[in-house]
Amino acid sequence: MECAQVSDSEVFPVPEAWAKRALMDAAGFEAATRRVDQDPEGYWTEVAQRLDWMQPFTQAKDVSFHREDFHIRWFADGVLNVSVNCIDRHLPERRDQVAIIWESDDPEVYDTVTYGQLHAEVCRMANVLKARGVRKGDRVTIYLPMIPAAAVAMLACARIGAVHSVVFGGFSPDSLAGRIQDCDSRIVITADEGVRGGKTVPLKLNVDEALKDCPGVEDVIVVRRTQADVPMTPGRDAYYSELKKTVSDTCDPEPMNAEDPLFILYTSGSTGKPKGVLHTTGGYLTWAAHTHELVFDYRPGEVFWCTADIGWVTGHSYVVYGPLANAATTVMFEGVPNYPTASRFWEVCDKHKVEIFYTAPTAIRALMRDGDGPVARTSRKSLRLLGTVGEPINPEAWLWYHRVVGEERCPIVDTWWQTETGACLMSPLPGATPLKPGSCAKPLPGIMPQLVDADGKELFGAISGNLCLTDSWPGQMRTVYGDHERFITTYFTTYPGKYFTGDGARRDADGYYWITGRVDDVINVSGHRLGTAEIESALVANEHVAEAAVVGYPHPVKGQGIYCFVTLKADVAPTDILQAELKGWVRREIGPFAAPDVVQFAPGLPKTRSGKIMRRILRKIAEDDLTNLGDTSTLADPSVVDDLVNNRVTA
Ligand code: 6R9
User: EC number(s) per UniProt (predicted)?
Assistant: First the structure.
């Protein structure tokens, strides 16, 4: 039975001091969970009171996951503005409180932005956008490094009702172009260059390259970061530093309906090109702010640091929107964990007196390899709470994080969620939940997980299955931009009437959830989500490649590595040079974080007689689990498997 295995795991009780100080202790957690069950409308109405509404809503929840009557609406007739909730309403008491601490890549350089300054900056950027013709509902692409201007640009869009689409600065020109085209944005905000780990990233040059395929873009606003001399196209490109001189530092906020779009964020799925996940105004902000307070036991003014890039959903919800809605001091870090040394994270914690620190397991595993020394030589005494997100954390890394970084004093919240869910859905609460290393513990009040078998039948008790959610929450995505049908088919048809997460999970006898990873063709590389189909289509776009199949395999630092099986065109010789070339090719086509770890040339791929590639077999080979290849008798040509096994490449 499953449970035997689970009961071995060590349990870390809630520290007494935490139970006392917590906004929600164990009893409170139970009460909230019961309350939302008995009176959902009352519960959700109360949760949304944390925001300032220009016009109150009359109904909190209005949802059906059934195809005949499919709709997801929260607080639908309420009116509010996100930038007002993140800035203006804090001004009377906190004009001079630091909103953003910017820690640059260079450890000698940092800056702070107060709420008062943030207000003026956001208004200026909003006015610049308006002057360039941006109106409510228009899409604005943001391709910026981790500098305060990135948060300013997002909030400026929110102020005037424009819909932002932030594209991670690590994406290639091609990936950027695809995202600009898909949402048809006429304007791009970028920087001359980004800086990471002592190296520059040619953001403006990437934009120029991307725009060769985006004739619809009329305006490029360039924020100066390095002052590099970059080409400027007259009539199209302008420096923000010039534009902002011409506008006022006040800007009336646009009253937005709760269900008006706030942003689009592209994410990888199991098929086709990345999907534009659309989030709306009222529900998203309610959920980002509520979970930021609950999960991190957050009180206004505390110094909160989420290391994620704003190009990913974690950066949206826990660098910008959640913290700022809660009047936080949020740290924005431009650099990388190991530059200039493996002590960097902890030095930044000491320098800015960080109280709550939130990062990805891959960073922890990478730092763990350098041993305890780089951690031990810092103080970290300001730290009270640690968090992880993005992928399952292995118990070894969890224990190291707990013992070495947190000195057994700081609870760890392992937060499970997705781009689609807007913010956290399952996590321990530091004052309420005993911790089990590697488990994201329990659903937050109002979240209804269900495990189902392949046929969609509900599974009870301690068991593994496919993870669904049977009901909505305010921060749920509302559609795939431009393709509502794809939204419904992707998430609500595998198991009709339920949202399918794409994750597998195990529930133990205590009702704790353990995410086992994706059950679809999505892989998670260093916490970055990638579709194997995307990498395959990048590979087959190469002139030498006839066919490709990509799978993930366990990687000690990245979580998963990228293993590519590539069939070359008939007249192409399989050389080491070509192998390296193909890795570089994918890197350039998608972005550096998508570079394959392994390329194995395959004269043939294992296919069924109907031509379907049997990925199960390829996964086993990539994992080096050759004893257990399963039934290969249904293959069109079973001998291809022998060739693949004999020529397996070690990373
Ligand atoms: C927030 C974010 C979502 C996928 C998700 C799951 C994995 C995220 C996790 C986790 C185990 C956790 N994931 N958090 N797995 N434990 N605490 O990462 O969004 O980039 O959309 O990725 O990441 O597989 O389905 P996103």
Answer: 6.2.1.1
